[in-house]
Amino acid sequence: MTSPKDFGWWIESTDEEIYGPVTRATLIQFLTEGVISPNTAVRHCSQETSAAAADQGLTSGLTGQAPLRSGDTLGKSWPKKTRDRMALAESDVECAYHKRPAILSCIRCLAPYCSKCQLKKRNTTYFMCKKCQAGLYNRRMLAYFLDGFAIILVPTWGIGIPAIFALGPERAVTIINLVNFAGLGLFMFRDPIFGSAGPGKRFFGLKVVKHEDGVSPISYGQGFVRSLAHLIPLFNLVDASSPYRDPLQRRYGDSWAKTRVLDTDAKLEKVREKVRQKLETKGIELEKTSVTTLPEFARIG
Known about the structure:
Blueprint: E1 9-12, E2 18-22, H1 24-33, E3 41-44, E4 51-52, H2 74-77, H3 82-89, E5 104-105, E6 112-113, H4 130-167, H5 169-188, H6 190-193, H7 199-203, E7 206-210, H8 220-228, H9 235-245, H10 252-257, E8 259-263, H11 265-281, H12 294-298
Antiparallel strand pairs: 1-2, 1-3, 3-4, 5-6, 7-8
Helix pairs in contact: 4-5, 4-9
C-alpha cells in the first residue's frame, strides 16, 4: 500500500516561482543537501494551502540536521532538461489511466496520474487531472445548452408554431416575444428555482453552491448575477471557455456572484468507484489520506 503523499509536491521558492511536482523523496534530498530549508513553503497537490516543510513533517525522518536558514537555491539547482525534471517527479505508482509513473493525484477522482494527464499552463498548478478538468467543463457546457433548449427553444416552438397557424405570423409575433421573454427570465434564475441545479445540471450530476461555504444553495441574486455574463456579446464566449483554463473551475459569472459548480455527491462517488476499480486491476492500493474535499475546494480563492 502506497501513500498518495509520497509524490505530487509543489515547492514555492523565494524567487516567487513554483517548482514541481516532485516526490517526497526528492523533498527529503533537497532538505538534506540544503537546496531548500525547513521553512520553505511546500504544498501537496491534494492540499489547499502551503506550509513550511518542517510543519508538513518532512524533516522528522532526516538522518542529519537540515540547514536552519531562510531562502533556497532552487533557481540554480532546478534541472533544465525535461527528462531530469521528470526524474524528480515520477513515483513508483502507476498512473490510473496510462502505463506511466504517476506524478500527481487528483482531488476529484483521487486517481494517481502521469504527465500525460497533467494540465500544463505556465506556472499554474491544477488540483485536478486533465480528464476531470475537461470532463467537468464539458458537462457544464452540455448542461447549459440543454437548459437553453428545454427552457427557451422548446416553449417558443411549442407555442409559437401553433400560434402562427392559428393567428397568422403578424399577430403571433407578440406571443412569441412574450414566451421568449418569460423563457429568458426562467433561464437566468433556473439554478435557484430548481434547488441549486437547473434541469441540465441536474441531468449531468452538477450543482451550484455558494463560495463562502461550498455547500449552501445559491440565492436568486447570485443566480441573476452569474447569468449576466451570458448576455454580453463576445464576452460571453470568453466567459464560457474560462472554466477549463481556471484551476478552480470558475467562469467570470461565478467570480462575480461568488458561486462554484461542483459534482453532486452521487456523481462524485460513482467517479471515484470507477477509478478504484481501475487501480484494483493494476494491483494498486493507495492509503486513504486527507485531501481537499470539494466543498473546501469551492472555498478556495
